[in-house]
């Protein structure tokens, strides 16, 4: 009896330890097509603490899979002029975040809808524009304000889920 | 048994406590600005909260002032001028985490001074602003 009690305490302790390590409770679709990716299973959102902290200061920390590695490389090379703001980080932080972004970048070649440079804005990719073609008139809604404001419609965006079932477009 | 409950209790605390260690106090950060100011300007006369307030509230040639994101009242939650993302209060009286990490302080002064003034802020300017922020009561 005592022994069982002791074991359950250990189980509890181990469970708590796992809780403190696992910081990626959310799941996210990883593909252009929701139905196809849900058939393949849902991948957890990969988290890096520095990415979350640094890239999430002024805007949502956009998931690495939304751009290709070459786009992220270009992004990290220009942080001192990041869409009109200085978002520079120290060298060690830049290396860690850059590695994280490239490692988890889209395996697909996310291309811009115009121009030949790697896109820096997620919203400039053909993939994004195709996914949002039916709601393009919603950006001007004051509750949305901008296509960069994922969470206005993707209610679980902050935790990495862009699944169809979590979408609630303000009408 | 007793030891096990200590272990699970300790692990529980580890799992829950994400509070950063406060490495510095705002007064220590201010003292460090003062050291830099004395070094860079031999005629340094001390910091002024009134000058800091003015610096904080006026524009410096660009579209943004400090208040564009931090609002006129640094004791309340601000909002990023471009993205609308909430910004926690800047005044230490309203947000105990502010000005407790010298590295973070330097990172944000570098970025924000570049955005607002197109240059780095001087130790005098940084000290004046912090002196102003320290006068704010919730």
Commentary on this structure:
The complex is a heterodimer of chains A (171) and B (138). Chain A has 6 helices and 2 strands; from the N terminus they run H-E-H-E-H-H-H-H. With 171 residues, chain A is mainly α. In chain A, helix 4 packs antiparallel against helix 5. The longest helix of chain A has 20 residues. Chain B has 138 residues and is mainly α. Chain B has one domain: Cytochrome c-like domain (Cytochrome Bc1 Complex, Chain D, domain 2), CATH 1.10.760. Chain B contains 6 helices and 2 strands; from the N terminus they run H-H-H-H-E-E-H-H. Chain B has a two-stranded antiparallel sheet with strand order 1-2. At the A-B interface, helix 1 of A face helix 1 and helix 5 of B.
Topology (elements, then pairings):
The complex is a heterodimer of chains A (171) and B (138).
Chain A: H1 2-21, E1 27-28, H2 34-39, E2 43-44, H3 49-55, H4 69-77, H5 91-103, H6 126-131
Antiparallel strand pairs in A: 1-2
Chain B: H1 2-16, H2 26-40, H3 49-57, H4 67-70, E1 78-79, E2 86-87, H5 102-117, H6 123-135
Antiparallel strand pairs in B: 1-2
Helix pairs in contact in B: 2-6, 3-6
Number of helices of chain A: 6
Described by the principal axes of the CA atoms, the overall outline of chain A is globular
Helix and strand sequence of chain B: HHHHEEHH
* Helical residue percent band of chain B: 40-55%
The first-to-last residue Cα distance of chain B is 47 Å
The CATH class name of chain B reads Mainly Alpha
The run of helices and strands of chain A is HEHEHHHH
| CATH level 4 superfamily of chain B | Cytochrome c-like domain
């Amino acid at each position: 009896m005592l022994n069982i009690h002791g074991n359950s305490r250990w189980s509890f302790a181990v469970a708590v330890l796992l809780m403190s390590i696992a910081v990626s409770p959310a799941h996210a679709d990883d593909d252009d097509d929701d139905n196809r990716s849900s058939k393949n299973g849902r991948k957890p959102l990969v988290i890096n603490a520095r990415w979350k902290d640094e890239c999430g200061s002024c805007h949502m920390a956009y998931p690495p899979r939304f751009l290709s590695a070459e786009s992220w490389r270009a992004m990290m090379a220009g942080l001192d002029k990041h869409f009109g703001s200085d978002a520079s980080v120290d060298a060690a932080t830049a290396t860690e975040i850059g590695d994280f972004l490239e490692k988890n970048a889209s395996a697909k070649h996310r291309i811009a809808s115009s121009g030949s440079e790697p896109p820096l804005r997620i919203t400039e990719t053909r993939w994004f524009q195709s996914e949002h073609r039916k709601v393009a008139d919603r950006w001007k809604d004051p509750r949305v304000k901008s296509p960069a404001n994922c969470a206005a419609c993707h209610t679980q965006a902050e935790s990495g889920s862009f699944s169809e079932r979590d979408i609630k477009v303000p009408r | 048994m007793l030891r096990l409950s200590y272990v699970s209790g300790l692990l529980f605390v580890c799992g829950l406590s994400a509070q950063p260690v406060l490495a510095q106090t705002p007064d220590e950060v201010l003292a460090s600005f003062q050291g830099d100011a004395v070094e860079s300007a031999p005629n340094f006369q001390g910091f002024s909260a009134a000058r800091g307030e003015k610096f904080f509230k006026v524009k410096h040639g660009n579209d943004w002032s400090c208040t564009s994101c931090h609002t006129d009242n640094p004791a309340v939650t601000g909002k990023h001028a471009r993205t609308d993302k909430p910004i926690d209060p800047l005044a230490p009286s309203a947000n105990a985490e502010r000005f407790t990490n010298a590295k973070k302080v330097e990172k944000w002064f570098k970025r924000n001074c570049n955005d607002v003034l197109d240059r780095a802020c001087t130790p005098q300017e940084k000290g004046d602003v912090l002196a102003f922020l320290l006068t704010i009561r919730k």
